[in-house]
Write a structure and sequence with these properties.
single chain; three-stranded antiparallel sheet; 27% helix; zinc ion binding; Hydrogenase maturation factor HypA; metal-binding; nickel cation binding; Hydgase_Ni_incorp_HypA/HybF_CS
Length: 113
């Protein structure tokens, strides 16, 4: 389960950022997780519950925003929705689509006090 190491890194970044900004507690964390990122949101939530204890994020809520897959078709020049990595362009059917969204995992923001 790679979600555990991902969430350990998220908590480490959140706690370090809180410390650098003089915060004593983190109230909430919002993540952007792409639907094509191969990251399971339910597993992230489970891991979050396990790794936040004993940190400044101990009582922080977690919100996960799912980011849709999107790409730029190099053949027809359109921005298109992607349902899978390396999928075909839904307009022209060709596979020369450069992914532009949907594979990210990032901390969108956090609320501290």
């Amino acid at each position: 389960m790679h979600e555990m190491s991902l969430m350990e890194s998220v908590i480490e970044i959140v706690c370090e950022t809180a410390r650098q900004n003089g915060a004593t507690r983190v109230k909430s964390v919002r993540l952007d997780v792409g639907v094509l990122s191969h990251v399971n949101p339910d597993a992230l939530i489970f891991c979050y519950e396990a790794v936040r204890h004993g940190t400044v994020a101990d009582s922080a809520t977690l919100e996960i925003n799912r980011i849709a897959g999107e790409g730029w078709c190099l053949d027809c020049g359109k921005t298109v929705a992607l349902e899978e990595r390396f999928g075909a362009c839904p307009d022209c059917g060709r596979h020369r689509v450069q992914m532009t969204a949907g594979d990210e995992l990032k901390i969108r923001d956090m609320e501290v006090i």
